[in-house]
């Protein structure tokens, strides 16, 4: 209020003075030159800073708080700067009788071959045992007004989350199967009775955004990881007399999910600066790849890259990074060599997120 | 088998193309530059809108994701500042898919993506929308083997080849511009950076390297040179169309 009255009292500066803008006006009127001015500012010894005072390589610190929702099997609240998301995991039972076409049930062996992994993925996908949902229209950002149908951005986000969940095989099928071991083999033979499949646990994973300041995907995924790690599934068993699936009330019989690895995404945005040609006619390098873009940077950058790495496979920690997914679209600045640098940044980020998810809050 | 394309066959659209390859058939139509809704209007650029309709059923979030990828990629090659405050509307209808597409183990969005990009590009060329460069795209699949080497890569495989090579460890879609710059990459599965780099190398060779064309058009001669890359194929399609249209002019 005081600012507007001040502007009314003070008329526009004299025409002879250079045109200057206060920071927020500059950012709204000319976003591209605003960011360009920050990144291109001469600072001989230091790395260039973005408008949010981070360097180009710097990610925001991730804060995770788990177990705050009472009616979920697992939950997490994740803060990535001003982007914050809540994830709740709820488990419901799917009776085997309601499943249309059960795949040939084979009990999981100790060694997992590629064929087993493939079959497990097929089963999880066809039965829809993981149901993720993302809600952006919560008043978290002016681009998504509450009450509207899911926008194209929301639908893209949910598709990416779902396909990453399935392709990384993060949740083990064995954690979700409800088996029944009959006391004796119905065929009357001396052989060990085969366990029967009686049903599945279906996980409904819901993500709500409290606020979005860029990089919605990384925040959503971090929330899912933390919520799944926090999830506790009660022990379900088949009752022969009632001929139905019952759950045990005893928390000591419940099991948590043993996740397969820890895939962590890192999103980057490419800022194409104004290319000035120098005297010899070569275009000067003026593109920056910004880690973990915020909302302002996302409006100005066209090209984005998302690298998902998982360093839990080997025993050498971050030296054994395996890539789970790579997405890049919107421009031609990032080539194979630049991608190598981004994979390295993603591996470093993996270590940060791994520490955050494993420390008890 | 080389892909096939027919251009400008829809008379009510500004540009159109039907593209067929390996059992995938897609009809693309482009209308533009046309009037844009006030709320989508951009003062200094053209707005690009992509609509994708699947082979069966109505559009789902999967189609929205593909539309977003196509939108981002095509917007980077369309010269939008040259047609400001207009709309370039690209509609793609998937006419048919190979029967095995849903059981290959590779995400069906990935197998469809290169064909969508080619259809859209041909339709844009047919509509004479100003473009800064052409683009070509290819799918590379790395099956699960004990000794993964460059020779086990599947370049632009058919659905049956993918099914036979099951399980597939990772699948990669690359799109390159006419100058050889990487415009799009969607990679899924489990792979190391070295494997990705080799796949990118192979994709670049198939798409736009001179004297390339590994595994794409074996045994087919174009202008006397055996084995063309995708960029050459694209130019030959447009050249054939233009020659056909100009046949009366060059009749004498």
TrEMBL record, chain A:
Show the GO MF annotations. mRNA 3'-UTR AU-rich region binding
Q: Which Pfam families match?
A: RNase_PH
Main location per UniProt?
A: cytoplasm
| Residues covered by the Exoribonuclease phosphorolytic domain | 58-234
User: What's in the keyword line of the UniProt record?
Assistant: Cytoplasm, Exosome, Nucleus, RNA-binding, rRNA processing
- SUPFAM superfamilies in the cross-refs: Ribonuclease PH domain 2-like, Ribosomal protein S5 domain 2-like
Q: Which family does it belong to?
A: Belongs to the RNase PH family.
Descriptive protein name: Ribosomal RNA-processing protein 43
Q: What is the lineage of its organism?
A: Eukaryota, Fungi, Dikarya, Ascomycota, Pezizomycotina
From TrEMBL, chain B:
Intracellular or extracellular location(s): Nucleus
Q: Tell me the SUPFAM superfamilies matching this sequence.
A: Ribonuclease PH domain 2-like (SSF55666), Ribosomal protein S5 domain 2-like (SSF54211)
Q: Which InterPro entries match?
A: ExoRNase_PH_dom1, ExoRNase_PH_dom2_sf, PNPase/RNase_PH_dom_sf, Ribosomal_Su5_D2-typ_SF, RNase_PH
Q: What is this protein called?
A: Exoribonuclease phosphorolytic domain-containing protein
The record's principal subcellular location, in a coarse class, is: nucleus
User: GO biological process annotations for this chain's record?
Assistant: nuclear mRNA surveillance; poly(A)-dependent snoRNA 3'-end processing; rRNA catabolic process; rRNA processing; U4 snRNA 3'-end processing
Q: What would you give as a GO molecular function for this chain, any one?
A: RNA binding
Q: Which residues form the Exoribonuclease phosphorolytic domain?
A: 8-130
- What keywords are assigned to this protein? Exosome, Nucleus, rRNA processing
Which Gene Ontology cellular-component terms appear in the entry?
cytoplasmic exosome (RNase complex); nuclear exosome (RNase complex); nucleolus
Natural source organism: Karstenula rhodostoma CBS 690.94
């Amino acid at each position: 209020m005081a600012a507007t009255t001040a502007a009314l009292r003070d008329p526009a500066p004299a025409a002879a003075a250079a045109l200057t803008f206060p920071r927020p006006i500059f950012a709204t009127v000319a976003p591209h030159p605003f960011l360009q001015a920050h990144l291109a500012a001469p600072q001989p010894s230091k790395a260039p800073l973005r408008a949010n005072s981070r360097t180009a390589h710097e990610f925001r610190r991730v804060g995770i708080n788990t177990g705050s929702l009472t009616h979920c099997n697992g939950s997490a609240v994740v803060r990535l700067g001003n982007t914050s998301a809540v994830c709740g995991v709820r488990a419901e039972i799917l009776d085997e009788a309601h499943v249309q076409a059960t795949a040939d049930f084979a009990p999981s062996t100790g060694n997992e071959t590629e064929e087993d992994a493939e079959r497990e993925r097929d089963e999880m996908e066809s039965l829809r045992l993981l149901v993720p949902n993302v809600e952006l229209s919560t008043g978290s950002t002016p681009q998504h007004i509450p009450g509207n149908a899911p926008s194209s951005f929301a639908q893209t986000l949910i598709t990416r989350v779902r396909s990453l969940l399935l392709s990384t095989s993060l949740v083990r099928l064995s954690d979700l199967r409800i088996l029944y071991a009959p006391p004796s083999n119905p065929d009357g033979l001396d052989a060990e009775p085969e366990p029967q499949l009686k049903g599945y646990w279906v996980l409904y994973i819901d993500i709500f955004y409290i606020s979005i300041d860029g990089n919605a995907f990384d925040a959503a995924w971090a929330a899912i990881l933390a919520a799944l790690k926090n999830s506790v599934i009660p022990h379900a068993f088949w009752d022969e007399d009632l001929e139905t699936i019952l759950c045990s009330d005893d928390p000591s019989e419940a099991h948590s999910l043993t996740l397969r690895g820890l895939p962590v995404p890192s999103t980057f945005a490419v800022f194409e600066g104004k290319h000035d040609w120098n005297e010899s006619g070569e275009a000067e390098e003026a593109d920056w790849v910004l880690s973990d873009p915020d909302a302002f940077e996302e409006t100005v950058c066209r090209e984005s890259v998302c690298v998902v790495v998982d360093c839990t496979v080997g025993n050498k920690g971050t030296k054994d990074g395996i890539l789970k997914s790579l997405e890049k679209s919107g421009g031609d600045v990032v080539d194979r060599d630049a991608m190598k640098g981004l994979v390295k940044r993603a591996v470093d980020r993996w270590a940060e997120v791994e520490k955050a998810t494993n420390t008890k809050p | 088998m080389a892909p096939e394309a027919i251009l400008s066959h829809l008379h009510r659209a500004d540009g159109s193309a039907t593209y067929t390859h390996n059992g995938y058939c897609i009809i693309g139509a482009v209308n533009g530059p046309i009037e844009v809704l006030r709320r989508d209007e951009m003062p200094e650029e053209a707005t690009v809108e992509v609509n994708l309709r699947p082979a069966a059923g109505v559009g789902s979030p999967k189609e929205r994701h593909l539309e977003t990828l196509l939108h981002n990629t095509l917007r980077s090659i369309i010269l939008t500042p040259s047609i400001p405050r207009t709309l370039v509307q690209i509609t793609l209808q998937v006419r048919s898919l190979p029967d095995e597409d849903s059981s290959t183990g590779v995400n069906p969005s990935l197998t469809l993506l290169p064909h969508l990009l080619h259809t859209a590009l041909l339709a844009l060329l047919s509509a004479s929308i100003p473009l800064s460069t052409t683009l070509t795209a290819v799918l590379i699949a790395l099956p699960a083997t004990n000794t993964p080497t460059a020779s086990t890569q599947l370049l632009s495989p058919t659905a049956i080849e993918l099914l036979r090579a099951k399980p597939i460890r990772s699948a990669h879609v690359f799109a390159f511009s006419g100058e050889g710059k990487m415009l799009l990459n969607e990679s899924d599965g489990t792979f190391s950076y070295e494997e990705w780099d080799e796949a990118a190398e192979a994709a670049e060779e198939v798409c736009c390297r001179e004297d390339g064309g590994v595994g794409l058009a074996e045994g087919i001669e174009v202008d006397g040179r055996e084995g063309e890359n995708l960029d050459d194929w694209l130019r030959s399609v447009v050249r054939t169309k233009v020659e056909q249209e100009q046949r009366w002019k060059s009749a004498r």
